Amino acid sequence: MSITWRSDAPPPVVARTRGHWARILWRGGRIALVIGAGVVATLLLRGPERAIHGAGRPWTQPVTVFVMGRIVAILGLTLEVEGTPMAGPGAVVSNHVSWLDIFVLNARKRVYFVSKAEVAGWPGIGFLARLIGTVFIRREAREARAQTEALAARLAAGHRLLFFPEGSSTDGLRVLPFRSTLFEALRGLGAGVMVQPVTLIYEAPEGADARFYGWWGDMALGPHLAQVLGAPRQGRVRMICHAPLAVTDFPDRKTLAAACERAVRAAMPPEAAGRA
């Protein structure tokens, strides 16, 4: 069962400024070229890579990281990383603010996203998600064993997985309670599995609504994408990497999820840390 967070306040209305559509075409065109080049490179490399390395992706994953980093740079969004991104296999969990999270988190960290199964069928997006090695799951109790087996196979291949325990994106001004379902799958993988909490803090462009980068509820992707692409100035995003936690240090999935939530929430600005 999926959830969608909705706010009592309507999304911000962003006025279009002179050059709005020109900026969309300029930035959007370059992003499309970068994605296209990444797709071609990945398709060409994945066959021989699979034959030599199996599930490992030592050739195509760097392509994904490069493409994501270029997209963030083309947007003009300043990305600041605090702390040390985890090395080696394991899992990364983060608060979820926007579709931008996918680019931001993969721009500096080699991660594979864990996504709801429906995304695999989305036109265009589903193809790209499959191409970069996204793990698709159904968040249902009866799927727990299959989820554990899928995650175990990825960790055995040296992959670092990423998922959003809130289960929904927000306006970026709060952290929702972490759902513990996927943490149970991680606990079933045995000793040595580490989880790194990460806090994403978006700061809007000067003079813009603080929720500028947030994408939530029933907001359509197209208008929000145009809002970001067409902005005359961009803000910044801070990616705060907390100390990794050993899964076996916690007695159950709920205490592990709670510990990760506390770490993520503690790094939020004071006015946002207590919101849920």
Explain what this protein looks like in three dimensions.
The longest helix is centred in the first third of the chain and has 34 residues. Helix 4 links the parallel strand 3 and strand 4. The protein is globular, with a radius of gyration of 18 Å. The protein has a domain of about 180 residues. Strands 1, 2, 3, 4, 5, 6, 7 and 8 form an eight-stranded mixed β-sheet that branches. The chain is an alpha/beta fold. It is about 40% helix and about 15% strand. The model has no long low-confidence stretch (mean pLDDT about 90). Helix 6 crosses helix 8.
Broad shape: globular
Strand composition percent = 5-15%
How would a textbook summarize the main sheet? 8 strands, mixed
> What is the count of DSSP helices, taking H or I runs of 4+ residues?
9
Descriptors for this entry?
eight-stranded mixed sheet; 8 strands; alpha/beta; 276 residues; 41% helix
Give me a quick take on this structure.
The protein has 276 residues and is α/β, with parallel strands linked by helices. It has helices at residues 20-53, 60-75, 100-108, 125-131, 144-156, 181-187, 221-229, 253-266, 270-273, and strands at 78-82, 90-94, 112-116, 135-137, 160-163, 194-203, 236-241, 245-246.
